[in-house]
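Protocol step 4 of 6: record predicted structures for both targets in the notebook before any analysis. Target 1:
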Amino acid sequence: MEKNIIDYLDKDCVILGLKQKSKKNILSAILDHLIQKKKINKADKNPILKVLLQREEMGSTAIGGYIALPHARVDCVKDVLVCFAISSEGLNFDSLDQEVVNIIALLLSNQKEAGMHLKTLAFLARMLRDKYFVQQLKNAKTEEEVLNLLNKQQQIAR
């Protein structure tokens, strides 16, 4: 990969203590956070949410192992945007293994970025296969700790 996941992430793209109960509310809360941090425009929330939910209808992006990778390609996003949302208690995301989800790695990219979108999605999945790493993320107390863990894991996953 030319760019690092960390290049698309800063502490404004890390959410700790997510508690929403439904998939729609979870995704909505993540988008509200990104609006608040000026990563996306408020006017783009509903179109992005619609595309994310349509993707979920095709099959849950909760891939098991306490991980969900919701993703969408939308015109209103200029580059690639990655957001990590973490819930220590776990959330219901219709996971393939029937378990709760603790780590949600949301990926948004521009329609024209199909190749980069798929590469980034595959890299996120590869990074998050490590159960020990997922446990560390789940227990992270600060945004900086999450970024440090991701940075270290990224070096390993290459």
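Target 2:
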Amino acid sequence: MPSLIVLMLVAAAAVAFWNASRAATERARELGRDACRAANVQWLDEAVHAIALRPCRLRQGRLGWERTFRFDYSVDGRDRHSGRLVLRGDRLVSFVGPPAPEPLAFPARSSPRP
């Protein structure tokens, strides 16, 4: 009987880990898509790929997971660049990807003429 309880606890932990991983992947997908849209570049494959997983301390001091994801984007449709984002729990802590468009530079106003 105790082995059945242990098996159920292990199964519950595996399901909780899988559920948290899916939620982190969805969050990374949203962040990558939004960054590509803001930079006016094409998000390739419409997917993110988990490339690293390690334990870390979350902001509240609890033990959690730091997940690193990779995604691809194209500036002109002929090239391919890789972006990377790191999530601790569901919080973005690092992003390397398409540069945000430069803000428009307006010439300084000259002083009004008398």
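Step 5 preliminary note on target 2. Residues 90 and 109 are 44 Å apart (CA to CA). The longest strand covers residues 42-57.
Proceed to step 6 after PI sign-off.
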